[in-house]
Amino acid sequence: MRAHAFTLIELLVVIAIIAILAGMLMPAVGLVRDAARSARCQSNLRQVGMAFEAYAQDWEQYPDSRATINGPYWQTLLEPYLDAEGDSASNAAAKASIAQGKGVMRSCPALKSSSFYAAIIADFAGRRVGYGLTSRPWKDDPTWSNFGSAADVVTNYRIMTPQNVSRRSQRLMVADSGYFFVDADPLPGSIWDDRQRHRGRANAVMFDGHTESLAPDMFLLAIKDPAKR
Hints:
- This protein is an alpha+beta fold.
- It contains five helices and five strands, in the order ααααβββββα.
- Strand 4 (202-206) and strand 5 (211-214) form a beta hairpin.
């Protein structure tokens, strides 16, 4: 009996169908991958939030985003509570580690997809590890004052404690950032403004310990005026 083979037209039709199906599936695969990255990022932030509370229980205050005035960065202070000693060290090993996405303090899996990634890595100095601490916890506190000169002189500044943090469920604690803190008025186009890694949104952990995915406007309100969220 004579065997029947596929014609060229039939092969082309099959290839075209496969290409169409692949084209339809790729965006869905990308969405699933991005969702997984965001979930891992929020898990990391949840651990950071728990470390903050553990630190506060021991020291009766939270780590300060401006601790570098008289001491180490907040990430370094939290390392013992995250089993991550040396994770924010400023050395070649730490730079290689952040490039590989290792360590809770620098492991936002979407960091590599950030347009600021190259600049963050190039300028890594033990403080730019993918997450930043809020620098404005007291926007609605009349005793709060902005930082002074370029030398970071501080006036009328209250240390964050569990007792004097208001609106804990609405107030941002730590979030995606290319710098060691997050601010409500970042320099546009700089690593200070790296807060839209997750399809235009940023992940954050609030002072009550829950995590959120925030659109840019809600992100700013969580820092500047949580009462309006």
